[in-house]
Design a protein that fits this description.
Helices cover about 20% and strands about 30% of the residues. The protein has a seven-stranded antiparallel sheet, covered by helices on one side. By secondary structure, the protein is α+β, with helices and mostly antiparallel strands. The chain is built from two helices and seven strands, in the order αβββββββα. The chain starts with 18 loop residues before the first helix and ends with a helix.
Length: about 150
């Protein structure tokens, strides 16, 4: 992925991680068959929820896929979708945070999630944000089988 990950443990304005929101998202996703594993605050990224997709949703050339979720108490977020392929990677990121390179709401599109990204508008409600992101990922998954 080009650029740097703008979120380490705090948003650029210093908002703390919303661990309650991450717990709620984990509770929703843990019962979802499309995920084989949900890692809450893994050691390598304690501010994230890592949602690993079932590889059966993908052709063999896609070896792994995941959605990393970071949410802040001020409703800033970063949702990073990543695929590992036989011949490379695919990255796409949906962000809401203050930025020198884009408006607060923006997307870093695949395949390489470049910075700067594309300005956009994300829904105000976090549930709608997740719904749109998961829907976009599902569209990508279906497209593999159409080609």
């Amino acid at each position: 992925m080009n650029g740097e990950d703008e979120h380490s443990s705090d948003s650029p304005r210093g908002a703390p991680i919303d661990f309650d929101r991450l717990d709620t998202i984990r509770e929703r996703f843990v019962a979802d068959d499309r995920f084989t594993r949900i890692e809450n605050q893994p050691a390598f990224a304690p501010e994230r929820l890592v949602c690993v997709y079932d590889v059966r949703l993908y052709p063999e050339r896609v070896r792994a896929a995941r959605l990393d979720v970071v949410w802040f108490e001020n409703d800033d977020f970063s949702l990073h979708y990543h695929e590992d392929h036989e011949t490379g990677e695919f990255d796409h990121r949906w962000d809401r945070h203050p930025s020198d390179h884009n408006t607060r709401d923006h997307v870093h599109p695949g395949p390489d999630a470049p910075t700067p990204g594309d300005d956009t508008t994300h829904p105000a409600d976090w549930r709608d944000v997740l719904s749109e992101v998961v829907s976009e990922i599902e569209d990508r998954q279906r497209a593999f089988w159409r080609s």
